[in-house]
Amino acid sequence: MICNYHTHTYRCKHALGDVDDYIEAAIELKADCLGISDHTPLPDNRWLGIRMHMDELQAYSDSIDTAKLRYHDQIHILKGMECDWAPEYAEFYKTELLEKYKFDYLIGASHCFPFDGEWEMSFDITTPEQIMAYANFYADAIASEIFSFMAHPDVFCAQYEWDEAAVKGAIMILETAEHYNIPLEINGYGFRKPKSKLKSETRTGYPYSKFWEVAANYDIKVFCNSDAHLPNDVISGIAEASALARQFNLQQVVLD
Ligand SMILES: [Zn+2]
Ligand SMILES: [Zn+2]
Fold first, then answer.
1. How far is the CA of 179 from the centre of ligand 2 (A)?
2. Average of pLDDT values for 102-130?
3. Out of 3.20.20.140, 3.40.50.150, 3.30.530.20, 3.40.50.2300, which CATH number does the structure's domain 3-252 have?
4. Which residues have beta carbons under 5 A from ligand 2 (an ion)?
5. Which of 70, 90, 118, 225 has the fewest CB atoms within 10 Å distance of its CB?
6. pTM higher than 0.85
7. Residues 76-113: tens digit of each pLDDT
8. Distance 68 CA to ligand 2 centre (A)
């Protein structure tokens, strides 16, 4: 079965194509299911440079509902959203997105995290203190139990030389995911990005095998997604992500 639950659209301003372009590419590539999950708008329109405006939410939701009807005999479509975690948005995700707009699922993500009174990028972590702040924040997102799965937990490894602090951060995330039974994502987009050049190695920034090696010690489930930002990438990276899951005996799951 080929399924991808992580798909963006032009609305986030760093992807191309609309809902139907991704669906048609997925049908062409013989995918069985496709979840559309653009970056969520936020009620205060924060971080607008990488997401749709609140005014676009209704049309986004409608376009997926319409596509579900149009393509129902060719592919299983789900209506999703990738949601940046911050406790002040929990109510919006639950009462607006899930209850009012009837999204099928929400992906939790932490592209940035609060540190020393600022928002730091999770992809640019370089100190043990930042790792612990990120891992704590990410664990809170898991514990909210709002999200069907959590996106790219291992982005904190992207520019960080693996060490004891990284293991500690990984354990905090993995223990929480196991406790709340929330699956984690092995994100295929990382395989399409430029390699990270660190002192000890040149490697994929994320997914990072050392994180998933630690994950093998926990009873966790994984989603293998493309995180498509181009219609042609609608299932890209899923095979590599699945290979990583198999290498560490991680149970791959899909949505209903
Ligand atoms: Zn994106
Ligand atoms: Zn993301």
1. 23
2. 98
3. 3.20.20.140
4. 109, 151
5. 118
6. yes
7. 999 999 999 999 999 999 999 999 999 999 999 999 99
8. 24
